Amino acid sequence: MAPMRNAAPLAHWPFSRGRPCSRVLVVRLPCGKVFPTGPIYLASLIGRSGAGTAVRLLDLASGDRSIPAKSRLFEEIASFRPELVAFSWRDIQVFSPQDSDQGFRDAFAFMYDPSPIHRAAASIRGLGEVSAYKSAISSNVALIAGAARAFPGIEVALGGPAIRIFGDWLEPRLPSRVRIFAEGDLGPFFEFLGLELPPDPVEPGVDLANIERAFPLWPEYQDLTIGVQTKRGCPRDCLYCLYPKLEGKFPSRRRPEAVVSEIEAYARRWGVRHFWLADAQLLSVPEDSVHLEEILGRIVSLGLELGWSGYLRVSDLEPRLASIMVRSGLEELEASIGSGSQRIVDALRLGFSLDDAMRGLECIAAAGYRGRILVNLSLNAPGETRGSLAESLAAVDRIRSLFGRDRVVPVVFFLAIQPGTGLEELAFAEGRLRPGYDPLSIWPWRARRLIYNPPPLGDMIGRACVEAFRGGARGRGHEGPGDRILAAIGRELRR
Ligand code: B12
Fold this sequence. Notes:
- The protein is an alpha/beta fold.
- It folds into 2 domains: 10-96 and 135-193, Cobalamin-binding domain (Rossmann fold); 216-494, tm_1862 like domain (pyruvate-formate lyase- activating enzyme, Alpha-Beta Horseshoe), CATH 3.80.30.
- 43% of the residues lie in helices and 15% in strands.
- It has 18 helices and 14 strands.
- The chain has a 7-stranded mixed sheet.
- Helix 3 packs across helix 4, helix 3 (102-112) crosses helix 17 and helix 9 (256-269) packs parallel to helix 10 (288-302).
- The longest helix has 35 residues, at 116-150.
- It is globular and about 70 Å long.
- Bound molecules: cobalamin.
């Protein structure tokens, strides 16, 4: 069981409808530099609540990162004088088998490299990474706790996607006066602020003039990709996914005109050219097609020259939607097929047929799409066999025959076991994990259990990854990690 979260009774909360919080500082905690969509939406919603609350946004993922986060935070608090600081924590567990992720590569070298010298070298480097991971978590914790201690008159709140997943485990590491908001809906937070939550909270009502005042660092994102959400919620029940828990099970779709006016404002006022439609998935269910088509149709009629991307379920695509996707600027597509084997797709409860997914991809190709397709594959999913791995390699080849070799990028994932998912239940049932485990444990022998890569294929796949990570193996160095991993698995399968 996770520890209990702190929950002070409402009567002791500092603000009320009669005296709402007048000044809120939203602080996005340090992470890789991606546009702070969540904090911007939160700040906008506070602005929409009509009580005249002043909001400021300090984004510790941008700005001068050579200045310690603590100095930037304390200076901001001293100059803005908020009544409440709302920390937003985006990501905690960032491992992925990408070339840039040295920590993941070393962990795999340590576990699967046949050479004891490589294993020893990886374990030494790994110690450094363990401490970097540990210090990333503890420096955020120290920042929040430090602010709570240094400014006893200011209320401190903590939320964001990482908190909805790991809030229960972080709670004991934080002072009790830090209010943790781990629930998906914003009602309790607005209650805490003494503010009325707008009746349609899925509509942030982003007003860029206000955002520019609240967030002076905004020009740093003009040339990057801006995240815009078209809906929240996902009714699916995929084995490994916690998005229904993060966003809710019922889709709340935004008004297409509001989504497009947000995109238009970024495009015209900030000159933004690249957008990420930041839904858990685009086309989660067939009814989403009409909604997406209307949004994209409006982009086409406005003549906005932009590129967009997103996570998309391709199985519901038909020619008309595919054509409008391409005309509205689809520039990169991330399609999660999971596996090339229908048996594995079903075991992952992905809820689509691979034939339909292939038909969807054919529609995109026929519509004249010229960008890249990132094909997400989850290796060694429950039930994986040498045969199903071969089917995945074949599926990538089939997609390549549609789009051309260079435009198809296999992106290889291992299933990470996240709290509250079907995969976690399965790991308990299979005895891989025990209830009460700490999902934030930094120790490699514990952390490795959170990556689902069981026998009998785990070692073979692990070795293939290690070979691929060494890069350049057999002259394939210019291809990405996914390509190299699949090529190495292909060699293992032929052995
Ligand atoms: C879209 C997305 C991306 C896109 C972002 C594109 C862009 N330019 O915007 C891309 C592909 C770049 C991406 C990358 C990664 N992502 Co990502 N991503 C998402 C996704 C699907 C949506 C995030 C989003 O923008 N939502 C829309 C905004 C409006 O919602 P929000 O952020 O939740 O904010 C709302 C609330 O949380 C709340 N809120 C926010 N802050 C606060 C604070 C307080 C006090 C309160 C009360 C409320 C509150 O208010 C907001 C309005 O409702 C989430 C999963 C999900 N469904 O949430 C994962 C997610 C955030 N990503 C995650 C991760 C790990 C990553 C990567 C590290 C993956 C990797 N290994 O490479 C990278 C690196 C990111 C980086 N910092 O460099 C994890 C983070 C948690 C974790 N496991 O640690 C998530 C939750 C997915 C998961 N399965 O676990 N990602």
